[in-house]
Amino acid sequence: MKIQEPAVAGHFYPADPDTLRRDVQQFISAADSDLTYHPKALIAPHAGYIYSGPTAGVAYAQLASVAREITRVVLLAPSHRVGFQGMAYSSAELFRTPLGDVEVDLEGLTQIQDMPQVHQLDRAFTHEHSLEVHLPFLQEALGLFKIVPLLVGDVDPVAVAAVLEQVWGGTETLIVVSSDLSHYLDYETAKAMDAETSTAIETLKPENLSFNHACGRTPVSGLLLAAQRNNLHVTTLDLRNSGDTAGPRDQVVGYGAYAFS
């Protein structure tokens, strides 16, 4: 079986399985799980755990009561290193982390492989972190599950929404969109911009998101369009930036956690 090896283990998160498991469990256990409903989708960040781990932990803590129901995760993330048109999937059948291997839902991929905006592009996954950093959180939060991992390039959000509709599924399917928020602004400016982003997400208005609001603006926008069609409600779970966690405040990166139901 073809395996997608981890690219940022030991850099964005610990390479040692015991240390990684402990850190992820601490991030999740430190968060409140206040949702009274089954989350259909989450937005969570993808930076190094020292920076965005607390916010990711808040997102994944919401799965505690429904983990046994979820058997498939559709995971969308922006491509940082390789530019391409459309949405890309990997030929890998397993994605590896220090915590073990996660199986790709090949049947799920067959549902979208013939869509014109979807194509195979292995090189886009080689050094990409935006999908990978979510896997240890999912492994700890869910246990056994399969993934439909997709990197999002230059594509209309309407086309992203169409792909999501195709693999929407029922309560067994969770959608996760990987995105950080503002980048390299000063602390107060970033807080103001990230508040704008949260308002756009909460009100399901992708037209109010610009390139500077979120590096995952396109997959986020696609999810917002799909959320409109499926009458989902959005809750902001957490909003902070690297100046609140482990970095200086002259140039920060914003992180938000959101749940859709």
Describe it for me?
This protein has 261 residues and is α/β, with parallel strands linked by helices. It has helices spanning 17-29, 49-61, 106-110, 135-142, 157-166, 187-202, 217-229, 242-245, and strands at residues 3-4, 41-44, 72-78, 87-89, 94-97, 100-104, 118-120, 146-152, 173-178, 183-185, 234-241, 252-260. Helix 1 (17-29) crosses helix 4. The longest helix is centred in the C-terminal third of the chain and has 16 residues, at 187-202. The chain is globular.
Keywords for this entry:
single chain; 261 residues; alpha/beta; Protocatechuate 4,5-dioxygenase, Chain B; twelve-stranded mixed beta sheet; 31% helix; globular
Overall number of structural domains: 1
The count of β-strands is 12
Helix content: 25-40%
Going by CATH, the architecture would be 3-Layer(aba) Sandwich
Structural class: alpha/beta
Cα distance spanning the termini: 35 Å
The major sheet is characterized as: 12 strands, mixed
Average pLDDT, rounded to a whole number, is 97
Shape: globular
What is Rg?
17 Å
What low-confidence regions span 5 or more consecutive residues with pLDDT below 50?
none
Along the chain, the helix and strand elements come as EHEHEEEEHEHEHEEHHEHE
β content, as a range? 15-25%
Kindly report the CATH topology. Protocatechuate 4,5-dioxygenase, Chain B
Q: Please identify which CATH superfamily we are dealing with.
A: LigB-like
Q: Write down the oligomeric state.
A: single chain
Q: What is the count of DSSP helices, taking H or I runs of 4+ residues?
A: 8
